[in-house]
Amino acid sequence: MEFTLQSKANPIEVATHQLYPNLPGAYRRPQPTEDEVKRASGDFIDLKLYEPAMRFLIDTYIRAEESEKISAFDDLSLIQLIVERGPDVVDALPKGMRKNEQAVAETIENNVRKLIINESPVDPAYYEKMSKLLDALIAQRRKGAIDYKQYLATIAELTKQAVNPGGGSGYPSAMSTPARRALYNNLDRDEALVLAVDQAATGQIRRATAPVAARNGERREPLFPRPALPPAGDPPRRSGPHRPARQHGH
To answer: What are the sequence ranges of the domains in the chain?
Structure first.
């Protein structure tokens, strides 16, 4: 068959016909050709073969019933629920999960691990301790050395300690703030050093943020003064062009 080049012919089609003269018109049907290749190679997926199985799945597992609340999480995270409910947090999990003790344990462990990693920069020493306690508890659970109820109670307490570092006993009375407790954990529990560092840092912050300080009867501006803001309202209008005053030389 002779190929006639028309004025509006596609140059790609022309070149394809010239290269493959025995396949006239094939280049105009790319999708059917692709389907034929798939069928020939055995890669074609015949969806009709799956219709009976899909119908069975739809009829068996998909039901048009009223929506059911599968969990009591609402806007709370799992960590918050553990802190509030303790071991009873299992009741807030979806039904399909709460029946599987291993799934519940691994879900809680993953969330506690994420909390420890995220908070570790704030107090590395404390959260390293929390991480080791979590590892030990996980090892006990996997070996079956602790029953499920005791495991839930223990990991709930560990979670509370991770959320509220320093909330328990074991700190001197002077370690009364989270910052001091974090310093205490990371400065070899040296109380005197912690107080010195805290006092120096607090004094520096006060000097830097003081609005106005008086020293030797002189007014001193703060180290980081607040930028002056323009007055509210429209900017003032000038009555005429402003010209700088000329200086006359002698």
So the answer is: 11-61, 78-163, 168-214
Question: Is residue 72 a contact partner of residue 93, using CB atoms and an 8 Å limit?
Answer: no
Q: Is the pTM of this model over 0.70?
A: no
Alpha helices in the chain (DSSP H): 11-19, 30-41, 51-61, 78-85, 95-98, 101-119, 124-143, 148-163, 178-186, 191-209
* CA quadruple 185, 188, 191, 192: dihedral sign: negative
In DSSP terms, which residues pair with 218 in a beta bridge?
A: 215
Would you place residue 149 in the very low, low, confident or very high pLDDT band (cuts 50, 70, 90)?
very high
How many CB atoms sit inside 10 A of residue 82's CB? 28
pLDDT of residue 6: 47
Q: Identify whether the C-beta of residue 112 lies closer than 8 Å to the C-beta of residue 162.
A: yes
In sequence order, what are the beta bridge partners of 213? 220
